[in-house]
Fold this sequence. Notes:
Low-confidence stretches: none
Strand order of the largest sheet: 2-3-1-4
Radius of gyration: 14 Å
Largest sheet: 4 strands, antiparallel
Distance between the termini: 13 Å
Number of domains: 1
Helix content: 25-40%
Structural class: alpha+beta
CATH class: Alpha Beta
Oligomer: single chain
CATH architecture: 2-Layer Sandwich
Strand content: 25-35%
Number of strands: 4
CATH topology: Alpha-Beta Plaits
Amino acid sequence: MYVSLSRLRVKEHGAPRLTAAFRARAHLVDDVDGFIDLQVWQSDRDAGELVMVSRWRDRASFTAYMKSEAHAISHDRIDPSVQELIKLERLEHLHTYEVIAE
């Protein structure tokens, strides 16, 4: 399994708009080979801290999607006023882990 975490920083007043944008996402990634799921987490201590977590079968699937037209389309449809709210603090990858227990 490959996990990508994008730590996002927004001004607290912008967090509801960003959350709404994630909920209204195009879902183009949902049918991509190797995609498992996507969640957006919000800190209970800081409403302006969000983490976008996507899980993939493997790194190759994630990399292929990041270079795909579906990825470009999904990002191109983000309202510029919402895009301006986002500051990417850190992009982390948990590389490849094998699930050994559930």
